[in-house]
């Protein structure tokens, strides 16, 4: 019999009303802002800093992934089910999916198999409208900029020196570079522009870094827009934009409550990508979870060199959060890949390939320990994994003093992750982790970039183009040297060359340019051939989707 698809499993699940899920967290119905029966917004006054200090934060990250991903979200949800199954009170806190990947290559991001958050279709599609609000706030600022250009009495902005781009939550390569303002004087000032995907918007980054509504407004006012003709910086506050933008985000700032398949609480909020942004959910959502639960399980995008590094050096440093443990997700498929397996060999057992590819996992283990946090390796199980491959990973990790556990959340839900949950709780209760960021924000920008490139990526050297060197001087002139570093880099390699798999050595990181996200509080070095607007693959996931006359969706996974 053909196994059920993710969406079929989700649709067969009888959901609990969200008010009942809220009761498990001690939240009264009157405190909820209901979005139908199964979704709700949570008020920010539920955040309690004293409770946060007493509870435990567990980060789920991964080795360097294959294009399909290695199942961090699935493992995060499964681990939450497992922790609750062994008597721990746990909530999973995740990012919201972007429509671009949903209709592009991945097809959804609500977990998989029997480790999912539901209602799956809603979460993967428009959800509670947070992404739409981010998009509208971003594009309001863009409209205000172009309107100021058009006015007789304006801020004297230089159209050639405007850095703010429009966004849309879709993979659309045709929008990467466009010309606007054509068609005569009534249509504005002609200039080059472009679109980023919504998760790459600085508004999304700000939403995820904000500690409250006033902080949100201040950060949006601090957005660096560009320069005037006389080289003076222009900020969003100069356009009196921050309050109108905040109005559009008045509901989006509140975290969203849903549930897992096993009816445990799930908080989902914010959605930046980790290869082009900080790759973590909102500070507010994480703090909300920690205010309401003994354990919070959260994830950070792509491999640990991206999402985990940014989670620890940016989010935790900014929010004074201290993870008690890190779970490193490994798949045998990915280890075969890093061992040199060709795409059509990834699902074929090969101990030799796994033995070669284990160096990638080793480097990620080393990196997590540099933050003085103890990792647990979760082997996310697939049906084509061999027993000898699993045993090799467990034994290899044990030789390094790291517990590796087979995680079967996809196939069995919480029943398949209780061993993993026990291993994680053991690390947490041992108090073996003493988190320390890898760099001080007050250090010079080049020193911070060097630290990440050499310590986390394993690079031997960092080079800067002429444009990047000009950007460094601009950052210094504007007084932004004490910002965090958010490197935009391929997720396919430790290096900036996606072809260098495994654990590359003696390579150079090439900084092409450095963008400023003054509202978010970081600068963004762009290394290698990175872009912030993806395109669709030759066969997008959307081609396999359908909806019937009853509104039942199929093909979303």
Q: Would you give an account of this structure?
A:
This protein has 557 residues and is an alpha/beta fold. The protein has 3 domains: 6-128 and 252-430, Rossmann fold (3-Layer(aba) Sandwich); 132-248, Domain 2, N(10)-formyltetrahydrofolate synthetase (2-Layer Sandwich); 445-527, Formyltetrahydrofolate synthetase, domain 3. The chain is 36% helix and 19% strand. The protein is built from 19 helices and 25 strands. Strands 1, 2, 3, 4, 5, 6, 14, 15, 16, 17, 18 and 19 form a 12-stranded mixed sheet that branches. The protein has a 4-stranded mixed sheet with strand order 20-22-23-21, sandwiched between helices. Strand 22 (508-517) and strand 23 form a beta hairpin. Helix 4 (72-85) packs across helix 17 (418-430).
What is the end-to-end distance?
19 Å
Give me the CATH fold name of the largest domain.
Rossmann fold
Spans of at least 5 consecutive residues whose pLDDT stays below 50 are: none
> Could you say how many structural domains there are in total?
3
Tell me about the largest β-sheet: 12 strands, mixed
Estimated structural class: alpha/beta
* Strand tally: 25
Number of helices: 19
Helicity level, as a percent range? Answer: 25-40%
SSE topology:
Blueprint: H1 6-12, H2 18-24, E1 33-34, E2 40-41, H3 49-54, E3 56-62, H4 72-85, E4 90-94, H5 99-103, E5 111-112, E6 115-118, H6 120-124, H7 130-150, E7 157-162, E8 166-168, E9 178-180, E10 191-193, E11 195-197, H8 202-209, H9 213-221, E12 224-228, E13 233-235, H10 242-248, E14 256-260, E15 265-268, H11 283-292, E16 295-299, H12 304-319, E17 325-330, H13 332-338, H14 351-370, E18 375-380, H15 387-399, E19 403-407, H16 409-412, H17 418-430, H18 445-457, E20 461-464, H19 466-478, E21 484-485, E22 508-517, E23 522-527, E24 546-547, E25 553-554
Parallel strand pairs: 3-16, 3-17, 4-15, 4-16, 8-11, 17-18, 18-19, 20-22, 21-23
Antiparallel strand pairs: 1-2, 2-14, 5-6, 6-14, 7-12, 9-10, 12-13, 14-15, 22-23, 24-25
